[in-house]
Structure formats: structure tokens, C-alpha cells
């Protein structure tokens, strides 16, 4: 799981963008919350690198050439879950924001108190609800993979190979970046492998047996694996 909260700020007004970034940074320092903030000046710039996993997206509505609502619609095509927080001078778009399932609708001027309230709500919800879908840009476009479908992830040929029961999705995303997006049921067992603990059938020596696959375990990671399996399945691995 990630050890920081990754936030995108998409705002075309330099003053508003800086004010929001400062409010977020101050909140992180005051609460001890590790934040990674990246800013974009318009929706087109943001979508150019999409999908890139963010925990929260602050999105101004009135932007050019692509406005915030259009940007949100594109985001939702690839990720139905990431919380979007709209920023605007006007309440007239509030109803429309429900069509893209916005988490927050924040009226400017954005104050530190407003940001703190929004983040507290979202962080509390984030702790309660683990991610259900892994969204990656694969060789054939954007893929949304249910976490429960993933058996293991393999790194080879400078790519990550996400293995499910029915398909393999290949992405240029780095293993460490994928690892940060996965819930606790996933564990790195080797420099080249991350496994879904729910898919484990048997542990024998330094071999981990899944339904149709045997994966190698690094000797430096076996102790953690045994511990995590014991916790996950509530029985002792012999």
C-alpha cells in the first residue's frame, strides 16, 4: 500500500493553483500526512499522462481548451473510483457534477479550512474502503482489472505482466508503482513477483504454489510471507 497520498491539482489560474497547493502542503505538515502533489494547468495536460494513479484529483471546472467536466468524463472512462473534487466560482455546475460522481464540490475562494474538511472526509473514507480495481495503461489501451482477479504480477523485459485467470495485461508501469496501489492482500515475494495471497494454494520451501503456477520466493522475503499468510488465512504454515 502507498506510504503517501498522491494528489493531482488541475487548475488554470496560477494564483488559485498556488493557493491550493499551499493549503494542501500546510495540511500535510500540520497533520503528519505525507502528500505528493503534482499540478497541471489544464485538463489536456493532465489527460496527456493519464492514467497515472492518484488518490485524489482536484479539478477546476472553468478551463480551456478542455473544461473540468469534460476532463472528469475522460477520467471516469478509465477509473470509476478515484475521488474528484471540483473547484469553481459558481454553484451552477453542482447538479452536473453528480453525473461523474464527484466526491466534493468546492466553491472558491478555497480556504485552508475548506481543504482540511474535504481531506479529512476523504482520508477517513479511504481507510475504510480498499481499492477494488487496478487501472493501468496496457499495450492495448487502458485496462481496469478487478483486484480479486489478479493472481500475480511479474516483471520481465522492462514491463510488468499482470496475470489473471483469463488474461495477461502487459504495462510499462514499474513494479514499485503498482505495488503502492495494491491492498494488503498483495505481497512482494521476489524482486520480480508480487502475489495475491488469496490465490496461494501451498508453500513448499522456497516455492509458492498458486492454482496453475509456481513462483520463486526470495530468501530475504520468506519470513514476511509466512507471517502474512498466517495472518491472512488464520492458520500456521508448516
State the gist of this model.
With 238 residues, this protein is an alpha/beta fold.
Number of helices: 7
Number of strands: 15
- Could you state the order of secondary-structure elements as H and E? EHEHEHEHEHEEEEEHEEEEEH
Instruction: Just name the CATH architecture of the largest domain.
Output: 3-Layer(aba) Sandwich
Mean pLDDT: 86
Low-confidence stretches: none
Computed structural class: alpha/beta
Count of separate structural domains:
2
What is the 3D form? elongated
> What name does the CATH topology of the largest domain carry?
Rossmann fold
CATH class of the largest domain: Alpha Beta
Describe it.
With 238 residues, this protein is an alpha/beta fold. It folds into 2 domains: 5-128, Response regulator (Rossmann fold, 3-Layer(aba) Sandwich); 133-233, LytTr DNA-binding domain (OB fold (Dihydrolipoamide Acetyltransferase, E2P), Beta Barrel), CATH 2.40.50. 32% of the residues lie in helices and 31% in strands. It has 7 helices and 15 strands. A 5-stranded parallel β-sheet has the order 2-1-3-4-5, sandwiched between helices. Strands 10-9-8-12-11 form a 5-stranded antiparallel β-sheet, with helices on one face. It has a 3-stranded antiparallel β-sheet with strand order 13-14-15, with no helix packed on it. Helix 4 (94-97) links the parallel strand 4 and strand 5. The mean pLDDT is 86.
Helices and strands in order:
Blueprint (H helix, E strand, L loop, with lengths): L4 E6 L3 H18 L3 E6 L2 H6 L7 E5 L7 H11 L5 E5 L5 H4 L6 E4 L4 H17 L4 E6 L2 E6 L3 E7 L2 E6 L3 E4 L3 H7 L4 E5 L2 E4 L5 E3 L2 E3 L4 E3 L5 H12 L5
Parallel strand pairs: 1-2, 1-3, 3-4, 4-5
Antiparallel strand pairs: 6-7, 8-9, 8-12, 9-10, 11-12, 13-14, 14-15
